[in-house]
Write a structure and sequence with these properties.
Layout (H helix, E strand, L loop, with lengths): L1 E7 L2 H4 L6 H16 L3 E6 L7 E4 L7 E4 L9 E8 L3 H8 L9 E5 L13 H15 L1
Antiparallel strand pairs: 1-5, 1-6, 2-5, 3-4
Length: 138
């Protein structure tokens, strides 16, 4: 099972402020533990929303590009970990060990093709997904 640990943005992260060196050290030790346990698939911090854009597809036929920054900090993401573990409980056990003082993490399970009913996608789409995942893992 794959889970994403989503680091919620703060006013400081949106202002482009870097954490103190001690926080980087603690994060490095945590990442090292995840790697040694064989559960870390990816982890990255994100630039502030002022460096990003949103693409709004609600108007049929013409996506709208909206440049950041975005005002609702509580809805923004500052970084993430992607881990692969055996259960939600194991994912939560890793999440509570994250070195965050005063920050917020959100845990979300990543959909797997096996989560969908057999008729949710065409056989061609299922085969394409399988091939792409195979290419990504090699």
């Amino acid at each position: 099972m794959r889970f994403m640990l989503i680091v919620k943005a703060s006013e400081a992260s949106e202002a482009g402020e870097l954490p103190p060196k001690e926080a980087f050290d603690a994060m490095g030790r945590y990442n090292e533990e995840l790697v040694k346990a064989g559960v870390l698939l990816a982890a990255d911090g994100l630039q502030p929303s002022s460096m990003g854009a949103r693409i709004d597809f609600t108007n049929p036929g013409k996506p709208a590009i909206i440049d950041g920054p975005f005002t609702e900090t509580k809805e923004l993401i500052a970084g993430y970990w992607l881990i692969q573990v055996a259960s939600r409980d194991e994912a939560l056990a890793w999440a509570v060990r994250a070195p965050f003082g005063g920050g917020v993490l959100e845990l979300r399970q990543v959909h797997e093709v096996s989560d969908f009913p057999p008729d949710a996608m065409s056989p061609e789409a299922a085969e394409r997904d399988r091939r792409l995942r195979e290419q990504l893992s090699s």
